[in-house]
Amino acid sequence: MTRRLMIGSGILLLLTCFAVVPHDAIAQTSRKPAAETTASVALPDRALAFRVVAERLPLKNDRGQVDAEAGVLAFLRKDAGSPRPITFIIGGGPGTSSAYLNLGAIGPWRIAFDGSPSKARPLLANAETWLDFTDLVFIDPPGTGQGLLLQRDARTKERVWSVDGDINLLSDAIATWLRNHGRLAAPKLLLGQSYGGVRTPRIAEALQIRHGIALNGLILASPALDYGWRYHARTSPLSFATLLPSFAAARLESEGTFEAHKLIAVEDYASSVFIDEYLRGLRDKEAASRLTERVTAITGLPAAVVSAARGHIDEKLFSREFARMNGKLTSSYDPSVTSEDPDPATPRPDYADPFLAALKAPLTIAMSDLLKTNVPGQQRAYIVSNEAVFDEWQWNSDHGLPESVTALRKMLALDPALRVLVVHGYSDLQTPYFESTLILNQLPDFGGRIAQRNYRGGHMFYSRDESRAAFRRDAEAFVSMIRQQR
């Protein structure tokens, strides 16, 4: 779940190469027994009873050997009628589990996404759970959650922790789960967050090609759709331009004056005048002066900071400088969250993000409690995020940086019933909402089957009660639309 990517000759997208996989190559013959219990939550206006099913799905390599396992935690409504929709959920990273979406947004329980890492955060019944209208299956790849890498040799790591290998393994896990549980005929959706934006459309493509399984809907939460838009910042204005509306949202939030319509003028400027004056370069001193003056007004940063950066403000510089005069560091995941600055003299400190760092310990404890309470014999630790996965991730290819726009375009053209919902937080600096807006504007209309919804908040916009509720309403309407057209 990070905007960070090391740029170099080795960080390129792996060529999509899907081989058709026979069913018996997906570890059905070595299926391990699932642990299952029943549970219920009492909500203000209703009670939900459901099954909790936890399992680890063995995943085979091309030699037929099981070298990894995906961790799966499913919440399945009891007596809810048929055919009941089912939504698969994956996290980002790479190296991040599905715990953020589970306990932050859509699962039957949640925790408060505020406070310090050591603050006790009990599991709460989640009034905004999606269990009312879809079953939920959270899938964690090897090395995250309860997913395991069984062989740690270089060959296995390069396969499992790679752009294409990850897509193939996750599509295999989804196909295996559907077959094992007899749910192939159900309406099927896939929800991915952050790097899940790269994964989700490509998993849909892999499921179609490798397994003959068609998804009905894709939900992309705070997605990174095309890394090429953001990591050519030395010469391209795109990454700076797409951040400007989110900087404006952060400033307006800090002033207590946020209204979505106030961002329209910033969006217009970012996609037109800013790019024109950026490309004129330093030799056009008048254009450079106009650019820095306007960017200063948009961001609320000190004029000296903006001038020194020539108006080229990235999320790291903004996070460093936005509240620096008050002795604070600002989160790039949610700029409304700040922390004390441990070293005010450092120009660009490499410290943990105030919002993200405060969540890891509470999420780890909460997921451990959830599993211990609801999964018989639960003993393994739950890994919320694993830096080793990110550090060893194989980005190498001769075909550019990771992106899913190509797969998204192809899948929407192939299936006239497929629908896509893209959701963002206005003030998210990791995956700016305006970046997705501009990327999606390059696609055909596809009969209005792509929708984007933006909410107040940052990367985990669902940390805000009103945004979490709005997300649920939009998701329920999205699922209802899919059910009606079947």
Describe this structure in words.
This protein has 486 residues and is α/β, with parallel strands linked by helices. The chain folds into two domains: 23-229 and 359-485, Rossmann fold (3-Layer(aba) Sandwich); 239-351, no CATH class. It has helices at residues 99-106, 154-160, 163-180, 196-211, 238-255, 264-270, 273-280, 285-299, 303-308, 315-321, 354-374, 387-391, 405-414, 433-441, 465-485; strands at 35-43, 46-60, 66-77, 86-90, 109-110, 124-125, 135-140, 148-149, 188-193, 217-221, 328-330, 338-340, 419-425, 450-455. Strands 1, 2, 3, 4, 7, 8, 9, 10, 13 and 14 form a ten-stranded mixed beta sheet that branches. Helix 5 packs antiparallel against helix 6 (264-270). The protein is globular, with a radius of gyration of 22 Å. The protein starts with 34 loop residues before the first strand and ends with a helix.
